[in-house]
Amino acid sequence: MTNTGNLSCKKSFSNNKQKQNYLPKRIILVRHGETQVNEDETVLEYVPNYKIKLSKKGRHQAHKTGSKIREIVSHENSDWKVFFYVSPSSRTRETMEEIMGGGETFPKEKVVGVREECRLREQHFGNFQEMETRKKIKRMRNGYGKFFYRVPDGESSADVHDRVSAFLEGLWRDMETNRFGNGPSNELNLIVVSHGLTILLFLMKCFNWSIDQFEGLTNPGNCEYRVIEVGCNGEYSLSVHHQDEELREWGLSQEMIEEQKLRAYGPGFL
């Protein structure tokens, strides 16, 4: 549900149109649906992580999420367009396909582009994962700290942060030079289909959150999404679309929530 503050925001939206410089109106971060691992975790012992597929329930989740996202991007405007970024994993590509609904939910004429982006992949946990070792790694990570803990033969969250940061820096350059061809109606939406940790690190980099703030965040559920939208202050914020209660449930402190409101509406709306 859109934050009620957005109603007041609309009054001054036109005053900040130049400041936005044709930024995509929204960036919607979507985690993949439930997978084979949710049904039988031992598949990780013989199926490569990147080849894990959606379960039947996961496909249903993704299709339902596609309808919800369509409602968000098409609300109050018929000029909307979408551009998809997707992690190269099977489960994320299948999630994107279900979200698109075979061209029914997102018709071809509304899809500006689809780009597979390797830097949005899942944290690397090594190769095949033996279950007892996997449990031990999770216990050690919880004790050590999930940002700096490096998975044996794999990545730390800090490593993922670095490649997500590189992706975002390129994305900002594309926005500033309007490589997406976003018109004056400003109705372009970027939909990023990725993984839970990758999404958290995307938000961390986007909003300059500290490591301590990152450690307090909760992982998005399967097919949950986070909507970052341009507010009347000309900046991206979670508070344009999401309510304070949601943000608290996701682990944002009151200070972080207030910062999101400031980004969305400016100091006069606090």
UniProtKB/TrEMBL annotation:
This is Phosphoglycerate mutase-like protein AT74. Signal peptide: none annotated. Substrate binds at residues 31-38, 91. GO terms for molecular function: catalytic activity. The active site is at 32 (tele-phosphohistidine intermediate), 122 (proton donor/acceptor).
